[in-house]
Write a structure and sequence with these properties.
The complex is a heterodimer of chains A (about 350) and B (about 240).
Chain A: E1 4-7, H1 8-18, E2 23-26, H2 34-42, E3 49-52, H3 56-68, E4 73-77, H4 79-84, H5 86-94, E5 99-105, H6 121-125, E6 136-138, H7 143-160, E7 163-169, H8 170-174, E8 176-179, E9 208-209, H9 216-236, E10 240-243, E11 250-253, H10 256-271, E12 276-281, E13 283-285, H11 289-297, E14 303-308, H12 314-322, E15 328-332, H13 341-356
Helix pairs in contact in A: 1-2, 1-7, 3-5, 10-13, 11-12
Chain B: H1 24-37, E1 44-48, H2 56-59, E2 63-66, H3 72-82, E3 87-93, H4 94-100, H5 102-110, E4 116-121, H6 151-154, H7 160-164, E5 170-177, H8 181-199, E6 204-210, H9 214-217, H10 221-235, E7 239-243
Parallel strand pairs in B: 1-2, 1-3, 3-4, 4-6, 5-6
Antiparallel strand pairs in B: 5-7
Helix pairs in contact in B: 1-8, 4-5
The chains are: A alpha/beta (about 350), B alpha/beta (about 240).
Chain lengths: ~350, ~240
């Protein structure tokens, strides 16, 4: 299939349809409005169903019902709306339902702004809602990668019966790039949805979609079972890109849009004789801890620096992974401000000049 | 010997956890009988609420989903849109449907979602120990209206059936009571009609059932039934609020 020029939000919506998603429940919020609009137009063409819900709360609960009925289903929103979805996400994780949720992150807290940000990292990776659970969090840095990850995200969700979040930002949603809708490189054996509530005809036990376990012993067992699943996910699903790390003296950790900017910083730095590497987590949960561990042991790596569009959230996971073996620095802009390559380079030079030489 | 009374097929043999004299058991049975009589059990999916009926998924012998507090109509919408040929019902209390889930019920109704809602109005929060519900009567004492519900401070009882009956997406709404045999039979007819409305594809159907909570009302079961008749029916008039023929 040839490449087409598409806006990030629309490409993500089309990728979901290509992945077999036929149900979408959304609510308007900037900067993700092209996703529900695209779905409203496209889903009826493929025999699917779009509903503009009365709130994000309602939309995520429609996702719960549809996922529980065995369908491939998606919702999307942006930061304040994703906060409203946290109740539903906790129930969905507790009831072990597969679905894909897109967050085109904008600046916060509160109503914040509508420009790109990465300040929902904690919410996305540490739970977000109440209780012991995780989302699988995928962070694309190009529209092509977003398309590929949405398609794989549905498979991951189905394989592990767990919600998957696509963590983008306003930049990724609004820009245009050429993309190709291509089949997934790895074909997964997906378990049949024998647990779905499709009607109790007697050929299987009665199906109940539920997250209530009133007996604490039983609830503990249930949560432990979910956490065994998370161990499997950690073992099988970590995705990370290491770029120019071999001869680097400092490694920058960045994801999504910020990682693109860092790549151009790396070229600039090279011209000035500074060798900078990049570790780009593609899965934010599970976090590529062992990749950081390995590079932290290399002698030529003198320091790490996390660059984010936040006041410093992923940097905490970088520190945990580097585990004191090398110093970890941070540079970030927030509130919708995007870090400029020159500013990042200046920070890198400061670290190299001040601390390392 | 002929068996003249038996458990409906649509109820499991799990003993109800409800308090003595609670009318949830009656309504569960009426819903189950209606499902049996229409022979739709194998294609019915129920949605349980948060509240005293939170374990409804253990009692109705069909596939069930347990929803978050107030979200049952949204969950039911998701199920029905994926499986339009199945019968989908929610079973919700007054706190669930008329307080925290107001947005969900109003918009499911106005969309004309082809689902059936069984709405239990007992004018109080049962599961959490007797707090004021949106349907609590003026002057009624609860743990959060210890001096009686004062409309100046806590507002007025909400009449959901009348409110929802104004919406075009609604096909059938009736308010019934279970305080005596005659009214229980009427409630049964209404519940069956609500499911028939869905089977006919007419749109949103709801039956509001005036019910008792002897435990949190601080009454014997018999006193509670009398209190319902004397105090609730004047505030919540029985009858069909809307019916699309």
């Amino acid at each position: 299939m040839s490449k087409v020029l598409m806006k990030g939000n629309e490409a993500i919506a089309e990728a979901a349809i290509q992945a077999g998603c036929r149900y979408f429940f959304g609510y308007p919020i900037t900067p993700q409005n092209e996703i529900p609009a695209y779905m409203a137009k496209r889903l009826p063409e493929v025999g699917g169903c779009f509903i503009q819900a009365e709130s994000e709360v309602s939309a995520i609960n429609m996702v719960y019902g549809a996922a529980g009925a065995g369908a491939r289903v998606m919702t999307s929103s942006s930061s304040p709306g994703i906060s409203l979805k946290q109740e539903g996400l906790s129930y969905i994780a507790g009831a072990e339902l597969p679905c894909v949720v897109v967050n085109m992150v904008r600046g916060g807290p509160g109503l914040g702004g509508i420009q790109p940000a990465q300040s929902d990292y904690f919410q996305a990776t540490k739970g977000g809602g109440h209780g012991d659970y995780h989302l699988v969090v995928l962070a694309p840095s190009t529209i092509q990668e977003a398309v590929d990850l949405v398609m794989e995200g549905f498979d991951i969700a189905d394989q592990y019966r767990n919600p998957v979040m696509i963590l983008g930002d306003g930049m990724l949603g609004q820009m245009m790039e050429p993309v190709e809708f291509r089949p997934l490189s790895s074909k997964r054996e997906l378990p049949p949805k024998t647990w779905a509530t499709t009607g109790y005809t007697g050929d299987r036990p009665r199906n109940i979609i539920n997250s209530l376990y009133i007996d604490p012993q039983v609830l503990e067992e249930h949560v432990k079972k979910i956490y065994q699943k998370y161990e499997e996910i950690k073992k099988n699903e970590v995705k990370v890109e290491c770029y120019n790390c071999e001869d680097a003296e400092i490694i920058v950790a960045a994801y999504g849009t910020t990682a693109r900017i860092v790549k151009s910083v790396i070229q600039k730095a090279k011209q000035e004789g500074i060798n900078v590497g990049l570790i780009r987590p593609i899965t934010l949960w599970p976090f590529p801890t062992s990749t950081f561990e390995e590079w932290a042991q290399r002698e030529h790596i003198k320091a790490f620096m996390a660059v984010e569009m936040s006041m410093g959230q992923m940097v905490e996971d970088v520190r945990l992974s580097v585990n004191g073996k090398k110093p970890v620095f941070f540079y970030g802009r927030t509130g919708g401000m995007v870090p400029e390559p020159n500013a990042i380079l200046a920070e890198i030079k400061k670290v190299i000049g001040g601390v390392l030489r | 010997m002929t068996k003249v009374f038996t458990r409906p097929k649509s109820l499991t043999d799990k003993p109800f956890h409800y308090c003595p004299g609670c009318t949830h058991g009656i309504v569960h049975r009426l819903v189950a009988e209606a499902i049996d009589e229409l022979d739709i059990r194998e294609r019915t999916i129920g949605v349980a609420p948060v509240g005293c009926a939170v374990f409804a998924y253990e009692y109705f012998n069909c596939d069930m989903q347990e929803a978050a507090h107030g979200r049952a109509p949204a969950v039911a919408t998701g199920i029905k849109r994926v499986l339009p040929d199945r019968v989908v019902f929610t079973y919700q209390g007054d706190g669930d449907l008329a307080a925290i889930g107001t947005a969900e019920i109003v918009h499911a109704a106005t969309r004309g979602e082809n689902i059936t809602v069984i709405f239990i109005n007992n004018a109080i929060y049962g599961m959490t120990g007797g707090q004021m519900a949106p349907t609590t009567l003026i002057g009624q004492v609860t743990t959060t209206t210890p001096y009686g519900r004062d409309p100046g401070k806590a507002g007025y009882p909400i009449r959901m059936s009348e409110m929802l009956a104004t919406l075009e997406g609604v096909a059938y709404i009736e308010r019934v009571s279970i305080h005596d045999i005659k009214h229980i039979n009427q409630a049964k007819r209404a519940i069956k009609k609500a499911f028939e409305t869905q089977l006919a594809g007419k749109g949103f159907s709801m039956v509001e059932v005036l019910s008792t909570c002897p435990t949190n009302w601080g009454m014997t079961p018999v006193e509670a039934l009398k209190w319902l008749e004397r105090n609730m029916i004047p505030c919540y008039p029985l009858g069909v609020k809307k019916e699309v023929k």
